[in-house]
Amino acid sequence: MSDLLWDKGGSGAATVDERIQRFLAGDDVLLDRALFLHDLRASRAHVAGLARIGLLDEQERAALSASLAALADEYRAGTFVLDARYEDGHSAIEVYLTAKLGEVGKKVHTGRSRNDQVLVAQRLFLRDALDGIAAHCRDAANALLDRAEADALTPMPGYTHLQRAVPSSVGLWLAGFCEAFLDDADLARSTRSWIDRSPLGTAAGYGVNLPLDRAGVARDLGFAAVQLNPLYAQNSRGKFELQALMALAQALLDVRRLAWDLSLYTSAEFAFVRLPDRYTTGSSIMPQKRNPDVVELLRASYAVVEGAMAEVQSVLGLPSGYHRDLQATKAPVLRAVERGLCALVLLPDLVRSLEFDRPRMRAAITPDLFATDRAVDLARAGVPFRDAYRQVAHELASLTMASPEESLRARVSPGAPGDLRLDELRARLTALDAALTTDSAGQRT
Ligand code: ARG
Question: What does DSSP say about strands 197-198 and 225-226: parallel, antiparallel, or unpaired?
C-alpha cells in the first residue's frame, strides 16, 4: 500500500499517475517545512484533547505525544527530512507515527481532517509572523527615535513636490517614521488578535460526531478562543492570511518610503546622508561607484507582498468550504512573510548607521525657505494672512537669511520641529514593548 493517507487499500488502492501526482502536490511538501513544527505542536494538542474525551488511553496519549516530540527534535536536528517522499507534512506525521507506534500511530487522525490540520498550522504560523512584524516595527521605531532625539534640531530642508519648501529637521523626518512604525506595530498586534482563534476540531468543515474538547485544545495552543463555525473556519482560510499580509504591507509601505528618501538623500545631488560600506555594493563596470542596493531591495520588498496579496485574493474567488485551490495561498503567504521579515529586521542597524552631512543639509536651506515663517510672523503681528502672504511674495528676492535653528525652535505647533514631542513617542514605545512581552508570554506554551 502507498503512503497516501487516502489510499483505501484492496480494490480501492490508489492508482497513481506520476505526472498527475506531481501536479497535485506541486511544491506543497517543501512549503510545509515552514509549517511542520506548528503542525506537530497542534497534533500534540489534538492528541491530548482526544485523551481528555476518552478516545485515547493514557498509554496511547503518552506514546503519541512522545513520538510527536521526538519527530520535532529530529526535524530540528535535520535527521528527519520533509521531502517529496510524502504527499505533504500532514501525511509525513501520520506515516512517522505509524512506523514508530504501529496501530496507535493510526489513531492520531481521529476527529480531524487535513483541512483543519493545515488551517491550524497556518494560523500558528501567521500568529508568529505577526509577532515578528510587531517586534521588528518596535525595534525600528526605537532606533528611529534614538536618532531623532540625537538630531532633533539638526536642520534639513523640508520638501513638498520634491521642491525645497521650509526649514525642517532631521528630528522631524525620523520621528515621522518612528510614529509610522509604531502604528504598524499596533496594526500587526490587532491583526494578531483578530485571527487568534483556533480552527482545530472543525474537521473537513462540518464538525464530527465526537464531543471534541475544542476549547481545551485552543487553550493548549495559546489561542484566545475557538473559531466556532466549522464552515467559516474553512472560509477564513486565505481571508485571515490576506489580512496578515495587509498588516505586513503597511509596514513595508513605510519601509519603501524610507528607502526612497534614502536613495535620494544618498545621491550626489542631495548628499545629505552617507551609508556605511556594508550597505552598498560596487558596479561591475564603473570603478568609482557605490550603489545603495540594500536600500533599493528594501524598497522592492513591498512588491513581493503586494504580489502575494494579489495571488491570495485571486484564489479566494471560491464558494464555501474546502477546495484544493486553497493550497495555492500557501506559497505566496510564506514567500511574502519571509521576505517582509528579512527586510524589517535590517531597519534598526540601517537607521543607526546613517551618517548625516550636516553642513550639506544646512547649505540647502536657502533664504527663500523662510518665506512662510516670515508671512506667519506678519500674521501674528496682526496683518491678515493673505496680505502677509502677498507682501512676502513681493519681497522674495530681498529675504534675508534667518538662522535655520531659530526657525526650527520657533515652529512650536505640536509635532513640529520646535515641539517634536519625542517623549510622547517614547511613551508609546514603552507601552508597546510591555504589550508585546505580555502577548508572547501569554500565548507561547
Ligand atoms: N496541502 C493541502 C492544503 O494545503 C492539505 C489539505 C488537503 N486536504 C484535502 N482535502 N485534499 O490545502
Answer: parallel
Find the domain containing 381 and state its range: 367-400
Contact 119, 229 (CB under 8 A): no
Q: What is the tally of structural domains in the chain?
A: 3
Q: Of 190, 267, 283, 403, which is the active-site residue? A: 283
- The cell for 195 is 485571527
- Domain assignment present for residue 289? The answer is yes
Domain assignment present for residue 408? The answer is no
Mean pLDDT, consecutive 10-residue stretches, the chain (445 aa), reads 73 78 86 97 98 98 98 98 92 96 96 97 98 98 98 98 97 98 98 98 98 98 98 98 98 98 97 94 84 95 98 98 97 98 98 98 96 96 97 91 92 97 98 91 59
Note if 283 is an active site residue: yes
**How many CA atoms lie within 13 Å of 175's alpha carbon, on the beta-carbon side?**
26
328 CA distance to ligand 1 centroid (A)? 10
Q: Ligand 1 atom 10: the closest Cα is on which residue?
A: 115
> Which atom of ligand 1 is least distant from the CA of 32?
1
The residue to mutate among 114, 202, 236, having the most atoms of ligand 1 within 8 angstroms of its beta carbon, is 114
DSSP-assigned letter for residue 86: S
Residue 281, CA distances (Å) to 222, 258, 268, 272 in order: 44, 19, 16, 19
Domain of 103: which CATH number? 1.10.275.10
Whether residues 314 and 338 fall in one domain:
yes
Residues 286, 335 share a domain: yes
Whole-model pTM: value is 0.94
286: exposed, middle or buried (Cβ count in 10 Å: 0-12, 13-18, 19+): exposed
DSSP state of 15: P
Burial 126-152 (b: 16+ CB within 10 A, else e): bbbbbbbbbbbbbbbbbbbbbbbbebb
Q: Is residue 87 part of a domain?
A: yes
